[in-house]
């Protein structure tokens, strides 16, 4: 057979593959603020992961509730002790583990529901979409904190698993809006028609063609979502209806010293500082991701 | 109505009969395709030409049954392909036809490719949809097919994303996707419109070359008579949702009959004809929700008289394998007395 006709234009040498994921990672590494944020967050995550190795004491142990309570920071207890004579440093380290875990797991729950709900609503369209969106409007009109307070007041002794579930169940409304909008915008894109013309089924189009195009907005929402859940959990624990004692979360450590904040300053300063750092770094990373994605859409 | 004169195709691969695709919009029923019948033979290249809004793309999408609501293929329409009526075929069987027996090349190669997958993935996906073969084997087939379309270093290119390729390269990728299953029919919807001229010629050559290679039939949809002349053997001219003229390419260019076809030819720039400005057909295609009574081209036609106003013209036989939807077939002397079309007299759309 005669050879095919070569393409005359373009002949830049093949560049290395640049996936959307690779692009996001590179964009984060390019900016100094997000590089620093990544390192700081990495350290906090590492601390949480290796808590049993790092914590100098058992976070729940009350060695001497009379003689050792409310000690200010010292060499033996760098972050001081709490009113039950527990080591605050150990509690903050274990708190990192629990607070991050709750943030991530609850966000996974919200992502799953939010992406599923939004994608189905947007893709099916028509009546189904209208009904699903009106339901969402109703859910969105209830403040999340109020919803959680109601639930937690009704069941005051929820397990951590149930807490995660409720945090997740109340966190997907905004995301499903975003996903629905994107799916709606993309489902008439020519590449979707092209995929249909090549014989792809509806499910395949949704899963293979539409959702991968939503990775960036979902990643942004997830990053910011984790930060939001950490703050929410701290707020609930501070109110005494979040993580149950003797487990440590940043929120309930602060709560333990809340009635004497001025005197027992170390009890709110250290966990508070870590929480601020975590939320800040997550927000910086979320913003950086948003920048990449907005530049490319 | 004398609707004979369909060209002598021995065994039509595709036979479209009285296709009507209507859109039920709030402004009324848009009869985008309104009673179109034609055939495509095995290995044949047929062109459909017409300006925007004449219904050519809707015809193409109807064949693959990709019309989205509020559009609908009206009952009574038939699209026969390899012995099946595509209009009534169950969805899962229709999916088996798409991309496998009939495939489509889209106009805008950038937007027809998914931006977040490598082009190799996208070509391979077509094989994986239709044949349960491994990822690796599908990838190899994709690279092979990309090579056939003249993409240099196909192994490397396959690993790239659409935005990393030029327009011509991307169109080659789409061609690879359309041809990888060796379909019996490829519908090419303005395959070169988005490309610059030199690349256009290469892509057309490639299509013609691959068509011979695979024995595929092509339905070439374009507004460009140059593309038609270069690639097709038979031409269908569409206007306002219907076929207004059909003939072999040589016959059509030698003896255009319908005033609309004439207008299209005069509006082509030609070497050796210095003109101050290009001729254009005055006015625009009328609204599909309200096709004019009688001849739909009447208001833009330099020959119209009272008969076209009263009566919708049938397809007249005007030559060997040549049909035209124009009453000039029975009153040919009127061609000698052109006058400004109605739209110009009314002062609308004069150009």
Quick description:
The complex is a heterodimer of chains A (297) and B (351). Chain A is an all-alpha fold.
Q: Return the string of H and E elements of chain A.
A: HHHHHHHHHHHHH
Mean pLDDT of chain A: 84
What percentage of residues of chain B falls in helices of 4 or more residues?
Answer: 25-40%
End-to-end distance of chain A = 42 Å
**Helix/strand structural class of chain A:** mainly alpha
- Percent helix of chain A, as a range, is 55-70%
CA(first)-CA(last) distance of chain B? 35 Å
The fourth-level CATH homologous superfamily of chain A is MetI-like
Total count of domains of chain A: 1
Bin the strand percentage of chain A. under 5%
Largest sheet of chain A: none
Task: Count every helix of chain A, treating DSSP H or I runs of 4 or more residues as helices.
Answer: 13
Tell me the major beta sheet of chain B. Answer: 8 strands, mixed
Uncertain spans of chain A: 7-17
What structural class results from the helix and strand content of chain B? alpha/beta
Task: Describe the model.
- Chain A has 297 residues and is mostly helical.
- Chain A has one domain (36-57, 79-295): Orthogonal Bundle (MetI-like fold), CATH 1.10.3720.
- Chain A is built from 13 helices and no strands.
- Chain A has helices at residues 20-30, 32-49, 51-54, 88-124, 126-140, 144-154, 160-169, 173-186, 190-197, 202-210, 215-238, 250-256, 266-295.
- In chain A, helix 11 (215-238) runs parallel beside helix 12.
- Chain A is elongated.
- With 351 residues, chain B is of the alpha/beta class.
- An eight-stranded mixed β-sheet of chain B has the order 7-8-9-3-10-11-13-12, sandwiched between helices.
- In chain B, strand 12 and strand 13 (322-324) form a beta hairpin.
- The chains are: A mainly alpha (297), B alpha/beta (351).
